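Figure 6 in text form: structure in, sequence out.
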């Protein structure tokens, strides 16, 4: 909160590492400091999770009770948000369990062993094929979750935003997100544009096409300003190689909330440089 105030940020965003019992306190203290809370990531647990615990996933398709638990956590979050003046909830749909070991493939990437004829190429190919085979099943689960959450959001004047995956082990992909946005086009639903996550998808070999990016940018209602180096995301803008120019393609970009994302050890100078970069990009005319 101190760093946000000292670097001239306009507000706060609560990410998925928090828990609902702290939200009112954070929002109240932020407001007292002139930093209103602009968005919250959900679902979130009621309290700190134990070491062997995990959040239920909105995209859970095997266990419907797990999906319902995630939906109820998001409902609770939406109510809390309304009570403290936060009308934007970014939805994290959760992980996708694949046979391939993500950690092993990340290590292979760091060793440049995912290219054609390299040791990691075949396991990665199997992971991508399995993920694509699961796509319709995953979409059905996401639809079921959104069907309830969008209706609830309409009742309390809350807006939802879909967080796009950063790799095959997450959901939804850019294609899946675009399909969900089309299906719920009449509701209070948009998408988070996160250049770092989109860059990571490119590194995995499953990036979005330019046409898909244009479609997603056209439905953006939140910008998650994170950079990336390879598969390493959530860096401050300017510290990586993510395509931040896409921000200039979002309609109404000057009015969209932007969440500046970095690491706990980010310096004040790095945050200030990132803010300057984003300010310049938002002022840039969209590409024809």
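Output sequence:
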């Amino acid at each position: 909160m101190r760093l946000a105030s000292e670097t001239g940020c306009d507000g706060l965003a609560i990410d998925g590492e928090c828990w609902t019992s702290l939200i009112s306190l954070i929002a109240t203290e932020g407001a007292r400091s002139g930093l209103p809370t602009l968005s919250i990531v959900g679902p979130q647990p009621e309290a700190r999770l134990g070491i062997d615990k995990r959040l239920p996933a909105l995209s859970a398709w095997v266990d419907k009770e797990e999906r319902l638990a995630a939906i109820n956590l998001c409902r609770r979050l939406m109510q809390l948000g309304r009570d403290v003046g936060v009308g934007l909830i970014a939805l994290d749909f959760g992980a996708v369990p694949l046979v391939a070991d993500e950690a092993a493939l990340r290590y292979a990437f760091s060793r440049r062993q995912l290219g054609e004829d390299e040791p990691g190429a075949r396991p990665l190919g199997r992971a991508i094929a399995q993920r694509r085979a699961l796509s319709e099943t995953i979409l059905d689960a996401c639809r079921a979750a959104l069907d309830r959450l969008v209706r609830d959001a309409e009742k309390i004047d809350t807006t939802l935003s879909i967080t796009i995956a950063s790799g095959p082990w997450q959901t939804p992909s850019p294609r899946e997100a675009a399909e969900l946005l089309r299906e719920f086009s009449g509701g209070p639903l948009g998408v988070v544009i996160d250049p770092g996550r989109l860059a990571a998808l490119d590194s995995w070999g499953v990036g979005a096409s330019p046409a898909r990016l244009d479609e997603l940018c056209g439905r953006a209602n939140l910008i998650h300003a994170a950079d990336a180096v390879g598969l390493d995301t959530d860096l401050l803008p300017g510290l990586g190689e993510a395509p931040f120019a896409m921000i200039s393609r979002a309609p109404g970009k000057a009015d969209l909330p932007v969440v500046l994302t970095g690491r706990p050890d980010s310096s004040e100078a790095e945050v200030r440089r990132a803010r300057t970069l984003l300010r310049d990009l938002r002022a840039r005319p969209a590409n024809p």
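Caption detail: The chain has ten helices and nine strands.
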